[in-house]
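Standup notes, structure subgroup. Blocker cleared on the pyridoxal-5'-phosphate input:
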Amino acid sequence: MKDEVRAAVERVLDGGPYILGQEVEAFEREWARFCGAAAAAGVANGTDALALALVASGAVRPGRRDEVITAPLTAGYTALGILNAGGLPVFSDVSPDTFTLDPRALERALTKRTRAVVPVHLYGRMSEMGAVCDFARRHGLLVIEDASQAHGARLEGRRAGAWGDAAAFSFYPTKNLGAYGDGGAVTSDDVRLIERVKELRQGGHPSAMGGDVAGRNSRLDEVQAAALRVKLRRLADWNRRRQRLARTYGKLLARGVKQLVLPSTPADVNSHVFHLYVVRHPERERLRAHLAARGVETLIHYPAPLHTQKLFRRRGQYPLPAAEQLTDEILSLPLYPQLRDEELRAVADAVLEFENS
Ligand SMILES: Cc1ncc(COP(=O)(O)O)c(C=O)c1O
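Run returned:
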């Protein structure tokens, strides 16, 4: 796709403008259509997308420390987005089977100050949105999806980004849809909410600081939007490749595993686009060293649950045993669309060698 990306970038360089021009507008239309949402707003990154969606939806009001329930097993940026909006992240446990918010646990996190739920579609797997949305509706809460790891995932025919009152996406380069730098977007069916995000991403008001809310400076640039438009045309193919690689891992690894736990398959297979392939192992550190010695890089997403981290710790937080145990056992094996079949087999062989040693 090099030539296509180069041509798109050169079009921007030759023509200008470089920020919030016609490439951003076109990408916003195409991204909204792809997600099945009415509108989208391009912003500087996924953390800002979440913060701006929370403010624009009215979920978090200035100076009120409104509470937002989210998962403790996610990138710290999820909770940072809530803090940056002026809200207070409140953590509710995940299900060990899905790695996403356990809808049955949500009730316990509820207080008089709760205003919204931020389900995180972790590792590419959509949260149990039917149950999460039911819970939110029963308690008058807004739902803002953190869809930064689930571009293109589809649950019951509806894409990530089209379930909540709004959704936040990151286009960090390693995401399923990644830019050549930072980028993010908010999607929503509420066109006024998206218009509000477009004000807030430029200081708070189009006529610059004339409004009553301090916005931020969080704009998507034209070069990134032009490149994202090229890559968007390939997203569905890349997601299918990711799903195929995950199935192959599943088949190869299921043969000889003893203690290894493979990711479960959701009933709706399209609701998981395998941003990451995350296994569990009680001897995670030894397995990791074994793989490293064979040239296989692994990562841990994420090494500590957020409710135990200094920045997000708060009084009255109860234990979240599933998230705590998972962070000790999870390991991300290599998976990305360009991974070759023989490379995947070599990784699987190295894992099986450890299991049978
Ligand atoms: C789940 C999740 N939320 C939010 C973010 C923040 O996105 P960004 O790095 O673009 O600010 C990321 C990625 O880093 C993420 O994985």
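Discussed briefly. The domain at 235-355 is CATH 3.90.1150.10 (Aspartate Aminotransferase, domain 1).
Next: hand off to the docking folks.
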